[in-house]
Amino acid sequence: MSEQKHHGTAGQNRLSMGQKFSYGLGSIVNNLLGGAIGFMSIVLNVGLGINPALVGTLQAIPRFTDALTDPIMGYISDKTRSRFGRRRPYIFIGAIGVGTIFALMWQLPEGHSEMFYFWFFLAGSIIFYIFYTIFATPWVALGY
To answer: Which pLDDT does position 1 carry in this prediction?
Structure first.
């Protein structure tokens, strides 16, 4: 059997180590943020005493919203033409938005009712997952 050469990437298309490292940083964000939001269920249930059924609802509704927005963001990203590329503007905007909302979601005011915390976290989670979609959908597509 003859040996076939492995397909090589043309020099102008090769990624620098910095580009590979930067793309890998997105993976850290992609994996940690979802887990950290999941951790919020412990804070809401144990720390604030919110009914576990409401906490489950708080986790389900934003993920359902996320499932609806992902294909829309994929379409938008695929159709975008800019001097920065199809994906990078959304990754940048989404990263800033997701970081900001993530920090704000942990600033729960004290002394409010269970329903206040429900609506506070629901609104924050939906906004978080919209920005997460703006970041993650183009980021994943950039790797393919």
So the answer is: 55
